[in-house]
Amino acid sequence: MKKILVTGSGGAASIGFVRCLRKSPEKIFLVGTDCNELFIHFSETDKSFLIPPANSPDYIDVLNEIISREHIEFVHAQPDVEITVLSENRDKVNANLFLPRKDTIKICQDKFRATQIWKRKDIPIANTVLISKETDIEKAFEEMGSPLWIRAIHGAGGKGALLVNKYEHAKAWIDYWSGWGKFMASEYLPGANFGWDGVFKDGELIANFTKQRLEYVLQEASPSGITGTTGVAKIVERHDVCKTAINAIYAIDKNPNGVFSVDLKENKEGIPCVTEINPGRFLTSSLHFFYMVDYLLPYLYVKIAYGEKLPDTKLKYTNALLIRGLDTKPKLINRI
Predict the structure, then answer these.
(1) What secondary structure does DSSP assign to 12-69, as a single string?
(2) What is residue 318's DSSP assignment?
(3) What is the DSSP letter of 309?
(4) Distance CA 208, CA 213 (A)
(5) Could you tell me which residues are beta bridge partners of residue 198?
(6) d(CA 311, CA 207)
(7) Alpha-carbon distances, residue 237 vs 94, 159, 317 (angstroms)
(8) What are 178-204's pLDDT values in tens digits?
(9) Any bridge partners for residue 205, and if so which?
(10) pLDDT, tens only, 243-290
C-alpha cells in the first residue's frame, strides 16, 4: 500500500487532492499535516498532524519525524509556501518529491520575472510594469490607460489584487500593502477567465485539463471581484488556451516535470494571455472537478512519481459545470 503525506491537509485544495486519491483504483494510506490548529480538523486523511508553519526552522525536521514514524514514501504539497520550502530543501526531505526544478519554481513564483521571460519569447501576456516608485504608476497609466490591474508579485489567491481607475487609488493601495517593489501594474484583460492544469514527465505533457471560471465565491466582498476561490466553472475545450499554457511552461523550463497549473485571461481581442503559472500544484477547483468527473490527474501524477505503469485517464464529461459555495459540498451539473 502506498503511503503518502499531503501538506496543508485542512485546506480546500488538499481536501480535493485527497478525495481524488480516495477514488483511485488502489487503496492508499494518507497522512495529512497542517499548521493551523483549527483547519486541521477539516483534514480527510487517515491520520493528521499539527506541524509548525513552513517558515519555521523546525518545519523540515518535524516533517521528517512524521515521515519516519508513518513510513511515508511520497510527499505532495498544495500550499505555495510549502512548495517553496520543500523545493529548497528537497535533499533534506526523507521521502520522494515530484516537483519541478528549483529554478523553475523560483521563476514561476515571481510573477513579474516570469512575465518578462514570456514577453521576450512572444507568449501572449498583459503589458506589465513593476511598481517600485510613484512615477512607475504614472508610467503605467500613460502606457496602458485606465483601468489598471494592480497585484502582488508573490502570493496566491489574488493577493493584493485591485482594479484601479485613478493614480491616487493605486498609490494608496500600494502604500497600504507596503508594496513598493513588490507589486506590479498590468493592463486590464476584460475577457474570459481560464485555468489549465497539466502533468509532465521528462518534458512530455502526459495529461491536461482546461476550465473556464464563471464566478468566484463571495466575489461581491472583494474590491477586485476575485477572491481566489472559484464558485462556478465549466469544462471547456480551447486549443488556443492549451497551446498558450504549454508554451508558457516550456518558455521557462524546456524539460518540465510534475504538476503545473496556469491562469489565463482573454484580452480585448479575445486572445488568451498568461497571467501566472503555479508550479508543483493543481488548481483548487480543478481538484474538485477531477474527483467529481472521475478524471483523476492526481492519481496519474502519483503513478508517475512512483515510476509505475500509467492508468488510462480520459475526460468523459465535457459539458460539466461545477458549483461551489461555503458550507456545502460541490455540485456537478452535466449539461447536455
Answers:
(1) HHHHHHHHHHHTSSS-EEEEEEES-TTGGGG--SSEEEE---TTSTTHHHHHHHHHHH
(2) S
(3) P
(4) 16
(5) 208, 260
(6) 11
(7) 40, 28, 11
(8) 999 999 999 999 999 999 999 999 999
(9) 200
(10) 999 999 999 999 999 999 999 999 999 999 999 999 999 999 999 999
Site of grid cell 526544478: 101
Tell me the domains of the chain and their CATH numbers. 2-97 (3.40.50.20), 127-187 (3.30.1490.20), 190-334 (3.30.470.20)
Location of C-alpha cell 477586485: 224
Maximum alpha-carbon separation in the chain: 60
Report phi then psi at 300, rounded to 5: -60, -45
Neighbours of 280 (CB within 10 A): 26
Point out which residues pair with 62 in neighbouring strands. Answer: none
Q: CA 27, 230, 269 angle in degrees (round to 5)?
A: 125
pLDDT for res 230 = 87
**Residue 128 CA to its chain's centroid (Å):** 21
What type of residue is 298?
Answer: P
Q: Which of 199, 154, 160 is nearest to 176 (CA)?
A: 160
C-alpha distances in Å from residue 265, one per residue of 11, 193, 269, 273: 26, 5, 11, 5
* SS3 (DSSP) at 196: strand
Q: pLDDT of 43-82, one tens digit each? A: 999 999 999 999 999 999 999 999 999 999 999 999 999 9
Q: Are strands 230-235 and 320-323 parallel, antiparallel or unpaired?
A: antiparallel
Please answer whether residues 239 and 87 qualify as being in contact, where contact means their C-beta atoms are separated by less than 8 angstroms.
no
